[in-house]
Design goal:
Layout: H1 2-19, H2 32-38, E1 43-49, E2 71-75, E3 80-85, E4 91-100, E5 105-110, E6 113-122, E7 127-136, E8 139-149
Antiparallel strand pairs: 1-2, 1-8, 2-3, 3-4, 4-5, 5-6, 6-7, 7-8
Length: 150
């Protein structure tokens, strides 16, 4: 009986240790500013997903939302954000950025347009921003924009 308890305890301990996987890319809230600036060549959308992680067809993005995928975004430490065309690398728009609400919201102002995005995830290798104002099939839906550094 004692041997069974010991084996059970060891099995539980091993299961616990191996099931706890540390994300080496995870960062603290105080490092968000460093992370968003770490993509010195910019951030680019890799995919759009619904909150349930189902992938959306980028060809069905409509309205002004379709331009997000065509640009590269560079955030600098002075609070400026610049966008460039993905293909030609020509500068397109300039504006400002800042984190608000305890670094959980990214607010941008570009060409007078204010964008407010919930930060779902932000590491040096991925940025996921949530917006409730995304145009897809000519309707406004909630979308996660998954960005990767270039």
């Amino acid at each position: 009986m004692i041997r069974l308890k010991i084996l059970t305890t060891i099995a539980f301990f091993l299961t616990f240790c191996f099931s706890c996987k540390k994300d080496n890319n995870a960062i603290t809230e105080s490092e968000r500013t460093v992370a968003i600036q770490s993509a010195t060549s910019g951030w680019s959308v890799s995919t759009y997903t619904k909150p349930d992680n189902s992938i959306l067809d980028p060809n069905r993005v409509t309205g002004d939302s379709k331009y997000v995928n065509q640009q590269i975004y560079i955030f600098d430490k002075s609070g400026s954000v610049k966008s460039y065309d993905k293909i030609s690398k020509i500068a397109l728009t300039y504006g400002t950025w800042k984190f608000t609400t305890n670094d959980t919201v990214l607010e941008t102002t570009i060409n007078g347009q204010i964008g407010v995005f919930s930060v779902v995830e932000l590491t040096r290798t991925k940025m996921i921003l949530k917006t409730d104002d995304f145009e897809y099939d000519k309707a406004k839906i909630t979308v996660h924009m998954v960005f990767v550094p270039l």
